């Protein structure tokens, strides 16, 4: 089992990351699904609840209830073509989407 980080720890980690890479907090994105993500979601420029529990959905700016995390990219305005182009430039083949 991995380490469970409390809500203030997650917020602090986001703030430390933003400071280290000189990213204004208003330009950060946090994704979470539970009560221990609330502070991080509220601190981020864009807080996204991903298949979240009520506390996360209420704290987030947006809520997604879909099976794939890459849907967050679409929320950010990044298209499948953008992803495939970036992968091609990096010499990586983009896997086909799974449709069930």
UniProtKB/TrEMBL annotation:
A single BP term in Gene Ontology: L-serine biosynthetic process
Keyword Nuclease recorded: no
GO molecular function, one term: magnesium ion binding
Record's keyword terms, sorted: Amino-acid biosynthesis, Hydrolase, Magnesium, Metal-binding, Serine biosynthesis
GO cellular component: cytoplasm
Protein EC: 3.1.3.3
Reported cofactor(s): Mg(2+)
Enzyme class (EC, first level): hydrolase
Annotated metabolic or biological route of this protein: Amino-acid biosynthesis; L-serine biosynthesis; L-serine from 3-phospho-D-glycerate: step 3/3
Name recorded for this polypeptide: phosphoserine phosphatase
Provenance organism: freshwater metagenome
Organism lineage: unclassified sequences, metagenomes, ecological metagenomes
